[in-house]
Amino acid sequence: MAASNIGNDDIEDMEFQEENLCSSSSSISDTKFDMTIGHIEDIIMDDDFQDMQQNFMEKNYVHFEDTEENKFIYTDIFKEYTDLIEKFIEDKLTARMPGFVMSEFTRQLQTRQNELSGEIFEILLTFSDFISFKEMFIDYKAEKEGRTVDFSSGFVITPCSQQLEISSQNLEPPTS
Amino acid sequence: MGLLTILKKMKQKEKEVRLLMLGLDNAGKTTILKKFNGEDIDTISPTLGFNIKTLEHRGFKLNVWDVGGQKSLRSYWRNYFESTDGLIWVVDSADKRRLQDCKQELHSLLLEERLAGATLLVFANKQDLPGSLPSEEIRQALELDEIKSHHWMICGCSAVTGDNLLLGIDWIIDDIASRIFTMD
Ligand SMILES: Nc1nc2c(ncn2[C@@H]2O[C@H](COP(=O)(O)OP(=O)(O)OP(=O)(O)O)[C@@H](O)[C@H]2O)c(=O)[nH]1
Ligand SMILES: [Mg+2]
After folding, report:
1. Which ranges carry the BART domain (chain A) (predicted)?
2. Which is more confident, B81 or A30?
3. Which of A43, A51, A69, B122 is most buried per CB count within 10 Å?
4. What DSSP string describes A119-135?
5. Which is nearest to A89 in space by CA: A59, A120, A129?
6. Chain-wide mean pLDDT for chain A?
7. Closest by alpha carbon to A9, among A96, A100, A101?
8. Is the pLDDT of residue A157 over 70?
9. What is the Cα–Cα distance from A131 to A51, expressed in whole angstroms?
10. pTM for the complete prediction?
């Protein structure tokens, strides 16, 4: 990802430019807004984020069953999941952008209702979609249980999709 | 309110409606949901958690939440109030013995702050059963005329035959749409 190495240096550069070239305060906030979106993109593509998701699924997948009806506990886990992601994004943004204030950013978001298109927003929306959340767990569980069988019979099947690869890295030895 | 919640709320301007279906156990909530969705209704068992269906109807995206109504489950209802546009209260019109209980549960829901803006549709269900009370009597038994806080309507229906389900759903969508979507 080309944008992923925007560090503090670049931020200072930009602020410098703003002071000198852009006199209106609205364009300063434009730049800051776009930068924040860029950071969010990087944050959720990062391995840390994937690890956090994997750990969360590993901890909770046992509760899920591939049935149409949902258990009440899914709602608790879902709440925990969205809180975790929100906190993760906020912490990482604060680390990357000194002085970042989430409430300020969400206020800006709301004034730009019509500009929010693009993949990043689609991704963020799936995080707060219960049905996607449930599917993610059902898939994880199916894959997990498939693998358990593989171990017990002494075969290891090499995962082929990217998602499988990510989870196989965090694979712990079977605890039987 | 966090980032994800805010984004979700902003996105929902696009003709998306959240309907919450509640009522005592055995009222016929899950049957209504499945019937409306064109699914088989012969093998429905009591709901111990909740069901969600997303239905397309008249260009609206309806997210319908159906939560189990057994007494021990009712304390969970509150976890599903948030962002509800319409409350569908389903009544077993043949269950005269529990109408009092039914009335109390409904009226206490209407005091909930998070349901304050919701439109109320009461389905007087199971009208196909010979002993069922007509919707006019359900209206009196539930003291619906006392309700000043919400737009409401009562509609006699049968989840088994499908009678009047569409009528009720169309009314609740129209009412919600006239409140929410005319602002653009
Ligand atoms: N005759 C008749 N039976 C109905 C009707 N609607 C539902 N039933 C029956 O009533 C019973 C209960 O229906 P459900 O849909 O499971 O009721 P519910 O409100 O979802 O109940 P809980 O999940 O326990 O809250 C089932 O046996 C249905 O077949 C109806 O309109 N007419
Ligand atoms: Mg049910």
Report:
1. 33-146
2. B81
3. B122
4. HHHHHHHHHT-HHHHHH
5. A120
6. 78
7. A96
8. no
9. 22
10. 0.83
Sequence-separated (6 or more) residues with CB below 8 Å from residue B72: none
pLDDT at A20 over 50: no
Residues in chain B: 184
Kindly state the tokens that stand for B138: 């359900």
Which residues of B belong to the active site? 70
What is the percent of chain A where pLDDT is above 70? Answer: 68
Q: What is the DSSP letter of B44?
A: -
Question: Which helix (H) or strand (E) segment is B21 a member of?
Answer: strand B16-22
pLDDT tens-digit readout, B102-113: 999 999 999 999
Q: How far is CA A156 from the centre of its chain?
A: 29
Residues with Cβ within 8 Å of residue A45, at least 6 apart in sequence: A1, A4
pLDDT at B1: 78
> Reduced to 3 states, what is the DSSP secondary structure of residue B122?
strand
Protein residue closest via CA to atom 6 of ligand 1: B28
Chain A residues with beta carbon closer than 8 angstroms to that of B76: 72
Q: Give the H/E segment covering residue A169.
A: helix A162-169
Domains of chain A: 50-145 (1.20.1520.10)
Interface predicted TM-score (ipTM): 0.93
Among chain B residues, CA nearest to A113: B10
Q: Which residue has the tokens 């690869």?
A: A165
With H, G, I as helix, E, B as strand and everything else as coil, classify residue A50: helix
Q: Which of A84, A82, A78 is nearest to A63 (CA)?
A: A78
Nearest CA to ligand 1 atom 3: B126
What pLDDT is recorded for position A25? 61
